[in-house]
Write a structure and sequence with these properties.
It contains 14 helices and 12 strands. By secondary structure, the protein is α/β, with parallel strands linked by helices.
């Protein structure tokens, strides 16, 4: 199998699995307990908090562990009344009834008109890999006394993340996007005193996130931010891979690139082939042992076209024909060549049916 859907989720690697197993099999104490096993689990959580804080240039007391970015996003939004967001956010933001869509150019007018109290714009788009320069939006929001949140789920490990440089008030991450398990996430809060909990119950996470902590998951995400943070070496390898894929397909007839590789993370390429419907292409590639996506995994079973591609202006004849390739540095040249050959052959096959 050649796995090219890392934007949907990543495999839990051996070093991360080893960390998790020790806290599932042996050091399984409840962190709220006072005996040794409990104290050991508590130390694990605080160590992971320090690891995450260091990775994004925050303070440990600004880091909170959640079940993932969906929870983190909802937690932040629950503290505000009228939220302005971009039109290409993840559905955990777009589908929130408090969120109202806006173009970049309309931001200041929308804030004034609607008396908004939060702005949220993603850092990297999950379908195309596009990187957004949110600094100017943060400046506008802060100038108007409005707090700013960013969903950075697709950004970690692919671009450097420095919360002080970004100047955001909150930021969310999901561990399963960078080789930690599903079900553990991060929320950075610049000033935790300004937020109320999403869940009420015990005193975990400084009284802001009730529920017995996922110790094994938290230990895993702490290790993952150390092992899989951004590096220039990894960036260079993945940029080369992206260039190979782009060069291989750009000369094909009736092809459309939804990813602008000059302004994207290096691990994603979203493209479309006219008269080659994406579901058919995905199934044929699956029969060749290749896993790709047609866009956001959270919406993959919907018959609706991608809201992201609509906003981006992808032509109608390509919008249902788009596939997303997303890889990591472990893919080999042999695998790359096999994928290229398979895609080209299967596109020709589908077009032959039309």
């Amino acid at each position: 199998m050649i796995y090219l859907d890392n934007a949907a989720t990543t495999r839990v690697t051996e070093p991360i699995l080893e960390v998790m197993l020790s806290y599932l099999k042996e050091s399984y104490g409840n962190p709220s307990s006072l005996y040794f096993l409990g104290r050991k689990s508590k130390r694990v959580i605080e160590t992971a908090r320090e690891q995450v804080a260091k990775a994004i240039n925050a303070k440990p007391e600004q880091i909170f562990f959640t079940s993932g970015a969906t929870e983190s996003n909802n937690w932040v939004i629950s503290n505000f009344d009228y939220v302005i967001c971009s039109k290409i956010e993840h559905h955990s933001i777009l589908n929130n009834p408090k969120c109202h869509q806006s173009d970049f150019s309309e931001l200041e007018r929308k804030i004034r008109k609607n008396n908004a109290d939060l702005v949220t714009y993603m850092l990297v788009n999950n379908e195309t890999g596009q990187i957004f320069d949110i600094k100017s939006l943060v400046e506008i929001s802060h100038k108007m006394g409005i707090m700013f949140h960013t969903d950075a789920t697709q950004a970690f490990g692919h671009i450097p993340i420095d919360v002080k440089e970004l100047a955001v008030d909150s930021l969310s991450l999901s561990g399963h996007k960078f080789h930690a398990p599903k079900g553990v996430g991060i929320l950075y809060l610049k000033d935790p005193s300004k937020y109320k909990p999403l869940f009420y119950g015990g005193q975990q996470e400084k009284n802001l996130r009730a529920g017995t902590e996922n110790v094994a998951g938290i230990a895993a995400i702490g290790k993952a931010v150390e092992l899989y943070n951004f590096s220039k070496e990894k960036d260079g390898i993945c940029r080369t891979i992206q260039g190979k894929f782009y060069s291989a397909f750009k000369d094909m007839t009736d092809v459309w690139f939804n990813t602008n590789i000059s302004n994207s993370i290096p691990t994603t390429l979203n493209l479309a082939f006219k008269n080659a419907e994406s579901e058919s292409l995905m199934l044929l590639l699956d029969s060749n042992g290749i896993c790709v996506s047609s866009g956001s995994a959270c919406n993959s079973r919907s018959l609706e076209s991608s809201h992201v591609l609509k906003v981006m202006g992808t032509p109608e004849e390509y919008i249902y024909n788009s596939i997303r390739l997303s890889w990591d540095e472990s893919i080999t040249n042999e695998q790359i060549n096999y994928v290229i050959k398979s895609i080209k052959n299967n596109v020709k096959k589908i077009r032959g049916y039309v």
